[in-house]
Design goal:
Elements lengths: L2 E14 L2 E11 L3 E6 L2 E2 L6 E7 L6 E8 L8 E9 L2 E12 L2 E11 L1
Antiparallel strand pairs: 1-2, 2-6, 3-4, 3-7, 5-6, 7-8, 8-9
């Protein structure tokens, strides 16, 4: 089966202790590759920044994409984007993160075909 990536669950931001978690769900076959960005700059995994793509239980060709920012602070505020691609297509989703004190404000979630 061949499926171009498509978002089946809108990107969301949530706070998990001192971490911020950006997650969304996609459908694609074969399994896609992902690239995360902040302010259009590619992000790399580190001690504070973790990425995962995990199969969704009970759903064929469905994956949960997650980016976790440990010990998030106001300096981590900005526009974040994930690009998802396979041989059949490419999609991107973005969300703005605004950290004020201990509250997360997200706005302007966008999904687009690229």
């Amino acid at each position: 089966m061949s499926i171009a990536p498509k978002f089946t669950k809108k990107p969301s931001l949530r706070q998990d202790g001192k971490a911020v978690v950006f997650s969304c769900e996609i459908e694609a076959a074969p399994k896609p590759t992902t690239q995360w960005f902040r302010e259009d700059q590619p992000l790399e995994a580190s001690d504070r920044l973790k990425f995962s793509i995990d199969p969704v239980a009970g759903k064929d060709n469905a994956y949960t994409l997650t980016m976790t920012v440990d010990k998030a602070s106001a300096a981590d505020s900005g526009s974040y984007k994930v690009e998802v691609s396979n041989a059949h297509g490419k999609m991107a989703a973005s969300a703005n993160l605004n950290l004020q004190g201990t509250c997360i404000h997200s706005s302007n979630t966008h999904i687009r075909s690229t």
